[in-house]
Amino acid sequence: MNQATTPTMSSDNCAADSAQATSAWTSKRRDFLRMMGYGAGAAALGPMLAACGSSNAQSTTEALRAELVKDEAFWSSVQGMFVLNPQKTFMNIGTAGSMPTVVLDEFSSLNRAKAVDCLNGYSNLLDLRKAAAPGFGVDPDELAFSANTSSGMCHAILGIDWEPGDVVVTTNHEHGGGDTPLKIATNRYGIEVSRIPMPVGNNQTAATYVNLFDERIRALKAQGKRVRAMMWSSPTYKTGTMLPIADLMTVVKAHQLISIVDGAHLPGMMAYNYADLGMDFMSGAGHKWQCGPGSTGILVVRNKIRASNPLPLPKWYPIHTSSYSDLERTTNGTATYDIAATITSCGSVHTPMFASLVRACAMWDELGRKKVETYDLALSAYLKEKIVERWGIASLYAPKDDPKLVSALTSFNPFQNKDDVMNSQKSSQFVARMASDYPQGFQIRNSNFPVIGAAAEHYGVRLSTHLWHDATDVDLVVDAMWDLSKKMA
Ligand SMILES: Cc1ncc(COP(=O)(O)O)c(C=O)c1O
Q1: From the UniProt record, which GO molecular function terms apply (predicted)?
Q2: Residue 7 within a domain
Q3: CA 486–ligand 1 middle distance (angstroms)
Q4: Domain at 53, CATH number
């Protein structure tokens, strides 16, 4: 939430499309209801749904804004829990979150206590895992602490008993955090990586991804390939597209594959129940949306057979541990050993760091993970609708209408001359000027990615909306981006 409420940029803002025709409302309202109905629990959603049905004179944008401001006092108090520099508007949580005061205090007092009493960190942190696991819907033996998302991806991928010729099916929008261990496994164990070109924009649905993965796997099998695993990001860091875990797990199960999710952005953004989703590995960051300290991550590992995924547990060896159990993995609903202890425990760890991460998790549990998710997604939905009003639907890289594909990352082409998005320098200038040219000091980022059929990579800009933002921040950033896009045209 930025203190400034009045945009100071020139007033050539385009308001042309903001008054949407009432005739268009019905389908728009349906989209909105679908989106909100998917992303949030009934309790958190009740007021939004009621408001949506209350008037057909409002545009979707207006309805979203009205809902966002309804709980303003609550979200202002949440904003007050952070120590963020008020001179800037931090909209790059996808890269780094910020520890709230309670977490900073916990960190500081535990650091001091550790120093005062010369404490060590030889522990598998069971008590902390017990405290954090329920918030993610898993047992303590299924939630490990890692150093970050990349570290969790290394634990997952490099621990698998790969055979030469095993194929991992993934996408061409993955992050280096997952791609690097895949590359190591390629060189070291002779695996092959098959990449699906990612669609971008609003014209896609969850079924698109089910079909893309299923068809690729079938084609590989028809060539005699041994497809062993699927790996994907939910959401991708490039466009913010939420690859739908539950839907993709149907493909995983149909083809009896190992499932590895790069969920860097999931902890603290989405209120997922990972036992219900049933993937083998989900590697998330503790330091992004969850707002824990740097060098913290949450790695969820399937460690028992549940109805959500009846496939056998993959054979897996720890690659970074001081606690190695050579027990076989279980074939039923009872774990044979605490795999999360094996992953968490490696020499003396910095316990205050993980205790502080767990304090952040407790804060989210107290706020209500579903409530945070609903708010983050509603802010992003509002931002996407405003982008569509100004730049048109074709400017979005992040989809907005399929509720299963939305995240709190919003990525789009901000340029008046659409081809400028292929100009890396111009895109970087756009990001830099959003920070320097506007009093709100907007911190956003860009990322480059291939687009099917495009002559060159696109350098879209990406914004993160989280619990310290409000509707006014979205209004201001959209006005600033519109103003800057005109100036850079
Ligand atoms: C999808 C994705 N995977 C992995 C990473 C790496 O995250 P970490 O710094 O937690 O290792 C990022 C970072 O932005 C990301 O967006």
Answers
A1: transaminase activity
A2: no
A3: 32
A4: 3.90.1150.10
pLDDT in tens, the chain (489 residues): 544 333 222 223 322 233 232 233 334 344 444 444 433 333 343 344 344 444 556 799 999 999 999 999 999 999 999 999 999 999 999 999 999 999 999 999 999 999 999 999 999 999 999 999 999 999 999 999 999 999 999 999 999 999 999 999 999 999 999 999 999 999 999 999 999 999 999 999 999 999 999 999 999 999 999 999 999 999 999 999 999 999 999 999 999 999 999 999 999 999 999 999 999 999 999 999 999 999 999 999 999 999 999 999 999 999 999 999 899 999 999 999 999 999 999 999 999 999 999 999 999 999 999 999 999 999 999 999 999 999 999 999 999 999 999 999 999 999 999 999 999 999 999 999 999 999 999 999 999 999 999 999 999 999 999 999 999 999 999 999 999 999 999
> What separation in Å is there between the alpha carbon of 373 and the centre of ligand 1?
19
Distance CA 290, CA 195 (A): 30
Total tally of structural domains belonging to the chain: 2
Q: Is 237 in the pocket of ligand 1 (CB under 6 A)?
A: yes
> Shortest CA distance to 132 belongs to which of 147, 143, 124, 148?
143
Ligand 1: does its nearest atom lie under 6 Å from the Cβ of 427? no
181 lines ligand 1 (CB under 6 A): no
Give strand pairing partners of 233: 262
Which range of residues forms the domain containing residue 59? Answer: 22-91+368-487
Do residues 409 and 240 lie in contact, with contact meaning Cβ atoms separated by under 8 Å?
yes
What is the DSSP code (8-state) at residue 297? Answer: E
Dihedral angle at the C-alpha atoms of 161, 303, 181, 224, nearest 10 degrees? 50
Task: Compute the distance from residue 150 Cα to the ligand 1 centre, in Å.
Answer: 6
What angle, rounded to 10 degrees, do the helices at 369-391 and 60-70 form? 150
How far lies 278's CA from each of 147, 267, 308, 313, 380, in Å?
23, 16, 5, 11, 27
Q: Which of 366, 396, 427 is the last residue of a domain?
A: 366
